[in-house]
Amino acid sequence: MRAARVACLVVAGAAAAAGAAIAEPAQQRGRGPAAPACATLACDVQGDWERTRNLLLGLVNAMPDDKWSFKPTPAQQTFAERVMHVATIDLALLGTLGGKTPVPAITSPKATTKAEVVAALQTSFDYGAAVIKEFNDQQLAERIASMPFLGPSVSRLKVIYFSMQHTNDIYGQLVVYLRLNGVTPPASNRGA
Predict the structure, then answer these.
(1) Eight-state DSSP code of residue 144
(2) 3-class secondary-structure state, position 181
(3) Architecture of domain 40-188 in CATH?
(4) Tens digits of per-residue pLDDT, 51-67?
């Protein structure tokens, strides 16, 4: 009986070690490294913002320069227009948080080149990171007036997570743009 228990413990330990060995490389590809250890809600939000930034920037940088005017159908926006949509909506949403960091202006709101669009997107993500860091857990829970479609008042946290959800929605659309051009999105690249 005792030998059976020891054998079970050895098998369980080996399975856990094998699972950890398998899980570790997976964290180094796909959606990026694991989030940092956090003890506050504010830290969690900041980590999620950075993961969202890295996911979308990895995807947009994977699209070849000559494909930024690509549209899957004539009725749809170009790849560049969809990315600019993320940048402009993020600035509009996060500008309602009531932070001290001024909302930056995008120098080329009708940008079409990869360099211009990536610069605008980076500006919006930089602003988001700066303004999110201004708020502690209690301030994230405070109710504010934001965009009308979010209701008469919402928590800052809801505005931030709505922004990230919107970015991930557009990310999913942009994956199709890449795949239609023979490009595997970096988060889907499982390596050789």
Answers:
(1) E
(2) coil
(3) Up-down Bundle (1.20)
(4) 999 999 999 999 999 99
